[in-house]
Amino acid sequence: MDGPRASSLRELRPEDPTRIGRYRIEAKIGEGGMGAVYLGRDPGGRQVAVKVVRSALADDRTFLARFHDEAANAQRVASFCTAQVLEHGDDLGLAYMVTEYIDGPSLLEHVTENGPLSPGMLHGVAVGVAAALVAIHSAGLVHRDLKPSNVLLSISGPRVIDFGIARALDVASAHTRTGQVVGTPGWIAPEQITTQQVTPAVDVFAWGCLVAFAASGHNPFGQGSFQILAARAVHAEPEIGDLPPALAGLVGSALRKEPERRPSARDLLLGLVGGAGEAAVTTELGETWTAPPDDPAVTSRDAGSPAAGPPAAAGPPEAEAPEARAPQVKAPGVPAPAPVTRLAPEWPLEQPAPEPRAESRAEPRTEPRPGPRTEPPGVPPTERQFAVPPPVLPPVTGGQARRDGPSRRTTLIASTLVGVLVAGAVAGGLYYFTRPSDEPERRTGPAAFPSEPLLVRLDTEPGWPKTCHADIGLFKPGEASATTLVGGDRCEMLPEPSPDGARIAFTRTGGGKSEAWVMNADGSGARKVTDIAGGRVAWSPDGTRLAYMGRDGDTRQIFTVALDGREVTQLTDDDSVKDDPMWSATKKLVFWSKRDGTEQIYTLDPGRPGSAWTRLTEDGVRSVDPEWSPDGSKIAFTRGSPEHSSIWVMNADGSGARAVTTGGQDDMDPAWSADGRWLCYVRGSLADPVVHAVRADGTGDRVLTPEGRTFGHPSWM
Known about the structure:
The protein is α+β, with helices and mostly antiparallel strands. It has two domains: 61-73 and 106-318 and 328-337 and 360-434, Transferase(Phosphotransferase) domain 1 (Transferase(Phosphotransferase), domain 1); 454-716, Neuraminidase. The termini are far apart.
């Protein structure tokens, strides 16, 4: 490799690859439970981190599918205040991911060596990390393991790393056990401990812990074993120290026990800049992000000095990836940063044995080691599975001893350049929380649960989906049963209310035929509209027509028909597999098709039969069941393989795609509430589905199906 070798890099061995994809491999950085990380160089000469999945996971299809899925999602994350994921793929029979190479100490290292951040630097970190979470959540990801070692204080400002990996590790059979969680003690939210659903709210909780740590040098729930920290997180009030009033309020709200009561990342960022616009964000960062003071004497003594040894750990036990000391690169007239290089996103790496500290700088280790762990051998500390305590934990008083000020070790960063770069980077991210289509998510307080009942398919006998024995019913969440609206010896399914709620369209099958029917909202006046080729029917915005799947020869095409069964219009004429047409309030039709390979979501103009389609999903991941929000500004859909699908939401133009459910547990069939703030959906096997509801921001998930009942195809009236 060009230039001096980083001290923590290891020379390649015969079993190591010398090339992965288009990247030349130059050294090995580390190894962990998921695989190895190599220093690579692209054809243009840029250094990159190449993360290669270990061969033992090469045959785990579930893990590999999730790995590539999450890597593709991570590529969609805007690069402001995050580390960029460059590409992913398969080579030599192994999966790999490539990320940019990041210079700078972690927040953990800086606070350990220099003590709490100055007020200006603290505010800059708070803003930068909140901006990074906006980008991550807007791409549909949840970090799951945000902590000080995953925030780098680079020349371009705070950078959040290691997003999109924890979820892939969570599904690997060699790393997951029932009743265990993946995470780092002291930074995981109460709902992660009690094994509830993971939503973006867990990252907001971690943001609160991180900012409190940066301000005081201590975790707000103290130190101790996983069990002690878990009990405090669930029961004890955090000790956030002497924060500035504006930050204290935001940190306090971020650390609320109930995830639905925490602000979103957008709310945090708006609160940090006073609820103002883009100019305020750039100004805040430009004025508040300050680098540590220059100290050439200390720098010359410590830079690259083996005698200096690694910094002592601070706060709760936390695994670190090995450091890679890199050559310093200076901009003209700008002092170079301290020569600490990290790879981002971090791959879970095993912690090398620390070198002994020089006698004159020795500092006692103040935190106890974690309690007993139950992880398989070789699982890296950053992703170890800790046994989950019982859901009801004894209240523990959060206490913590203050440590003396640590030794001062400076990092040379030009504060003016940092302010400009960070401000410019985060300014681009303001788009995510100021665009008009996100307005419903910025309302004050969590959305109340809808009062409207649900239309459902009532299975009268088992056998779905091979055989159907079902009626259409009306179900009021919280009640023990549903009211049958229409039934009989045939199968009634896929109910869809009209825009004014006065009528219901549904599909009736039996005797080898499928038909579109319409009835009044009370179940009366049921009548056939037309024969169809199966699937659901959907209302036009004015309630005068239905869209459905019909046959043109051997191919199913999209048609529309007037309610009297006349005036039929064929909208498509290609030979691709397609289904699930749905009209929007803005008079667009959305559907999915295999025209470009895997099921993807498209729109067309029903007023112009045969017109060109617009493709909305671009990542090649199976996407089906599209559903317009009531105002036509968003589309909910099912994303992922049939065995591991989840509910996603995107804007009407395909931008801003994000996950609403993150369990990957066969979630499907989303439908919006009348106010557009909740979604109902089905989770579980086709034969035994369970109806859930969740807010459109991913919070408040709950089961709606009564005990002992089987409902399907939910749709809010």
